[in-house]
Specification:
single chain; mainly alpha; elongated; 0% strand
């Protein structure tokens, strides 16, 4: 995947707001529209068909497999769409649908690793704070310490949660789509959190409003059409009270042929309707990421992260070697005990038990030969 090396000019926050409106231009990217539509429709078809089979066979395992397959189609397909829109936001040449899917299959696992590491960071912070809170149970000193621990813990956890859900998770995708590795993503998002947390959150709120407004319009049109069509279908096809939202939602797992067809067709319709808001949101987060990384030198942050990882790896290696040495020492056979040499003053003749010296050849009492 080719990454643009051109460094765009720095934009003020007001210009960043204006550039975010350009996210609506995502509906002009016909390749992204086609790929996202195929992704949604493919996920509905795969999940729906396997769910129907699971319902007819009463198989929980098959139902789980259907959900898993639908998730995988959505995951890799939406990442392929993100790659297309990131190239569009960077002003690069387009990419074929097959190439986008292949790049997604090759790189999308980075997102899983990043999300896992991010949650580990939050979990580690919570464990550290829990240990400190246990220390605060000390009589007399505990309440005094808790006076400082409580506000600091609240700030740390609040910033971590906001950074996780408003920066780390939304911008991890654009960072991966731009070609960054797992540790580059972590280093870059960490720097964005430390330097541009507030501006990024404001831009994401604006993007949410834009996407919600477009989705409201589209689903308002779809909802009106579905209501009218359901009423006409109930009267003409003789379905009576079967044509309701609950029947359509559960139609894949049972019901008459018309209900199953309406449930499957309605699912495809909703999937197609979600294409436009999905495209706008995806390109919007790409624009936010590019605005947040303009003229930012990540070399120091990445070097710091690499040094920290090297230190942790070195300490882990030292601990492993120390544990191995202790294990070998514990399992080594004990050396046979050697009898201690008797003190010179305690030597006796083996015949008459009279005291003798260490250099005596014969006993002075009974003339017994000693050497």
């Amino acid at each position: 995947m080719t990454i643009s090396t051109e460094v765009p000019k720095s934009l003020p926050f007001s210009s960043a707001l204006g550039s975010l409106i350009e996210a609506t231009d995502a509906i002009k990217n016909f390749r992204a529209i086609a790929l996202l539509a195929l992704t949604f429709i493919g996920a509905v078809l795969v999940g729906g068909l396997l769910t129907m089979l699971a319902g007819s066979m009463s198989s929980v395992l098959l139902g789980f497999l259907g959900g898993l397959m639908a998730f995988l189609v959505m995951f890799y397909g939406s990442n392929a769409v993100g790659i297309l829109l990131m190239r569009d936001a960077q002003g690069q040449s387009g990419m074929s649908l097959v190439d986008a899917v292949l790049v997604s299959l090759y790189t999308s696992h980075r997102l899983i690793a990043v999300v896992f590491l991010e949650f580990l960071i939050v979990l580690a912070a919570m464990i550290a704070i829990a240990i400190i809170l246990f220390v605060c149970k000390i009589p007399v000193l505990g309440p005094v310490l808790y006076t400082v621990v409580f506000p600091l813990s609240a700030i740390v956890l609040g910033v971590l949660v906001f950074a996780l859900f408003y920066v780390m998770l939304p911008l991890a995708g654009p960072a991966a789509w731009s070609g960054a590795t797992v540790f580059q993503i972590i280093a870059r998002l960490n720097l964005i959190v430390r330097t541009k947390l507030v501006s990024v959150i404001l831009l994401e709120v604006l993007l949410f409003l834009i996407t919600s407004f477009v989705a409201l319009l589209i689903f308002g049109v779809i909802g009106t059409g579905v209501s009218l069509t359901s009423g006409m279908s109930a009267g003409i096809l003789g379905l009576g009270g079967q044509m309701n939202m609950y029947s359509l939602a559960s139609g894949l797992s049972g019901g008459s042929g018309y209900i199953i067809a309406a449930g499957l067709g309605g699912g495809l319709l909703l999937a197609a309707a979600a294409v436009v808001p999905g495209l706008i949101f995806t390109k919007g987060v790409c624009i936010i990421y590019l605005n947040a990384t303009r003229n930012v030198d990540f070399s120091a942050s990445e070097a710091s992260l690499n040094d920290g990882l090297a230190t942790v790896k070195k300490k882990a290696e030292e601990a492993r070697e120390r544990a191995r040495a202790l294990a070998e020492q514990a399992t080594a056979p004990a050396a046979p005990a050697t009898p201690a040499a008797a003190p010179v003053d305690s030597l006796h003749c083996p015949s008459c038990k009279a005291p003798v010296a260490s250099d005596d050849v014969f006993c002075g009492e009974c003339a017994h030969k000693l050497k």
